[in-house]
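stage 2 :: seqdesign
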C-alpha cells in the first residue's frame, strides 16, 4: 500500500512539474519572441521608438482600459478593495523609493527612473498566466482589474515621474492632462459603475486595438535592449532598484494587505500581482521622455 501511495505521489509530482514547465514556456516564449523581434528591428531599421511609445500611450492603452472595464463582472466591493490596495501599496513603494534615493543622494533623473522600476510591476505578461494556473478564472478576473488599475497609474503617475526629468511639475501635469488615457479611465469607471452595455461592434473594435498594447510595449523593450551599452549599465542605482523590487515591495504589499484587512483569494491575488518583476511599461515612458539615456546608457550617438 505504501509503495502504491509513493508511486502515485511521485507521478502527480512529475505531472505538476511538467505543467509548470509547460506554463513557463507558454508565458516566456511569446515575451522573448516579441523582445527578440524588437531587438532585430532596432538593429536593422533604427526606428523612432518615441513615436511607437506615443501610439501605445495615446491610442492602444485607452482602448484597452475602456474595453476591460466595460467587460468586468467583479462586484463593486471587490473592485473597491483592489483600488484601495493599489493606491496604498503604490504610496508606500513611492515613499520607500524616494527615501532610498535621497539617502544615497542620487540625482533627480536617477531617482525618477528608480521610482518607475520600483512602483510598477509586470502584472500583465507574467502575472495573469500565473494567476490562471494558481487560482483559476476567479483569480484571473481579480488580476485583470488590478492590471487595468496599474495601467492607469503607469500612464498618469508614471508619466508624471518620467516627464519630471524634462519638465517642471506644472508642465508634467499638463502632459498628463493631454493624454486620452485619463479620460478613457474616467469613462471606463462610469461604464463599470453604471453597468452600461456598449454596442458589440464598438466593443470588438476597442478590444482589437487594445490587444495590441502588450505586444507593442514588448517590442519597445527589445529595441531598448539593443540600444543599451551593457558595459556601463551595472550602476549602483540599478542594483538598489532591483533590491527594492525583489525584497522591499513584496514586504510592503504584505503590510498593505494586513493594514486594510484583506484575506482569502483577493489578498493572495494582489500579493502575487504586486510581487512581479518591474513593469515593461516603465521602459516605454523612459523612452518617450528620454530617461533611458540616463538609466541605460545607449551605444548610439
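stage 2 :: out
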Amino acid at each position: 500500500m505504501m509503495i502504491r501511495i509513493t508511486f502515485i505521489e511521485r507521478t502527480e509530482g512529475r505531472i505538476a512539474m511538467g505543467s509548470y514547465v509547460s506554463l513557463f514556456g507558454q508565458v516566456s516564449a511569446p515575451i522573448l519572441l516579441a523582445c527578440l523581434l524588437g531587438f532585430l528591428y532596432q538593429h536593422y531599421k533604427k526606428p523612432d521608438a518615441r513615436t511607437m511609445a506615443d501610439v501605445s500611450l495615446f491610442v492602444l492603452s485607452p482602448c484597452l482600459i475602456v474595453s476591460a472595464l466595460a467587460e468586468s463582472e467583479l462586484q463593486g466591493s471587490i473592485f473597491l478593495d483592489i483600488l484601495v490596495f493599489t493606491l496604498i501599496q503604490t504610496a508606500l513603494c513611492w515613499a520607500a523609493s524616494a527615501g532610498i534615493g535621497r539617502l544615497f543622494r542620487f540625482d533627480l533623473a536617477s531617482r525618477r527612473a528608480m521610482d518607475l522600476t520600483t512602483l510598477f510591476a509586470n502584472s500583465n505578461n507574467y502575472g495573469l498566466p500565473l494567476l490562471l494556473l494558481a487560482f483559476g478564472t476567479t483569480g484571473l478576473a481579480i488580476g485583470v482589474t488590478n492590471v487595468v488599475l496599474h495601467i492607469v497609474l503607469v500612464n498618469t503617475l508614471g508619466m508624471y515621474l518620467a516627464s519630471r526629468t524634462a519638465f517642471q511639475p506644472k508642465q508634467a501635469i499638463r502632459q498628463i492632462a493631454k493624454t486620452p488615457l485619463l479620460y478613457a479611465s474616467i469613462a471606463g469607471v462610469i461604464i463599470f459603475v453604471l453597468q452600461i452595455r456598449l454596442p458589440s461592434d464598438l466593443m470588438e473594435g476597442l478590444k482589437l486595438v487594445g490587444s495590441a498594447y502588450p505586444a507593442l510595449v514588448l517590442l519597445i523593450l527589445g529595441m531598448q535592449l539593443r540600444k543599451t551599452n551593457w558595459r556601463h549599465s551595472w550602476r549602483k542605482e540599478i542594483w538598489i532598484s532591483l533590491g527594492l523590487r525583489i525584497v522591499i515591495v513584496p514586504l510592503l504589499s504584505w503590510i498593505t494587505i494586513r493594514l486594510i484587512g484583506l484575506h482569502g483569494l483577493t489578498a493572495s491575488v494582489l500579493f502575487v500581482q504586486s510581487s512581479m518583476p518591474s513593469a515593461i511599461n516603465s521602459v516605454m515612458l523612459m523612452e518617450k521622455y528620454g530617461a533611458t539615456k540616463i538609466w541605460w546608457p545607449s551605444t548610439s550617438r
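stage 3 :: structure notes
- Residues 107 and 257 are 32 Å apart (CA to CA).
- DSSP finds 14 helices and no strands in the chain.
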